Sequence to fold (261 residues):
Amino acid sequence: MMKIESGGDGVVIVAGRLDAAQAPAAQAFLDGVQGTVTLDASRLEYISSAGLGVLLKTQKRLLGSGGKLRLAGVGKHVRDIFVYSGFDQIFEIEPAD
Amino acid sequence: MGEDRHSILPAEIADPAAAEGPAAAQRLFVRRIDALPDLVAFTAAFFERHGIDRELLLAVDFAIEELFTNMVKYGGSAAPVEVRLAPIPGGIEVRLTERDSTAFDVTHAPDADVTLPASRREPGGLGLHLTRRLLDTIEYDYSPDRRESRIIFRKTGSPGRGGA
Fold:
């Protein structure tokens, strides 16, 4: 399961598993954010390529309007995936530790 | 998993008798994205039952999801996908068998260019690229006579190939 919600002050909290089954719901939520947004990923346990696609699409849209998506609280699995995919060069990432 | 889905078509068909080896487990999964939670539960239970290092679980989940969703999206068949799990020293071996399929060698799919800036990247194309880096080994075999694709991968506590 995956849960995504506003944490206020430009923060979006995502928790659980962002996989191919949950990607459409995450995309629908993130399509509604504007400006510079911090995605609190401290409770994001798992991400697959479908989840990466959601984040990339959101980042491209926000960058196009002068904003951006940054990530905070990124755990080991998500960080490994970001490094191997080059997403660590596309997103500002604040590690969990 | 709701009653309605089961009444139409079970997402998971237990077939323990077909597993090879006393410790292996094998199941058939309906070729649908919404079968993913059943796959995750099947794998997690197997890790628990065999005391496999849970540090390996997310990489194994990732590989299974990417390979399974490829079969869902591009397989061109409604046949269920067989997933077999077997413990090996220090980890796990996973075999996915896709029947009534055309050949697509996942081990030779082109790598993604992960050096491009956001403006030149598009969603997609990362699944197999990442899968190959998270695993120890991955093999592909296709039987034209049976129209059957078989993917076998192994994951142990040894360092993965990473960015190699």
Remarks:
- Chain B is about 30% helix and 25% strand.
- The beta strands of chain B are 12-14, 25-29, 81-88, 91-99, 137-143, 148-156.
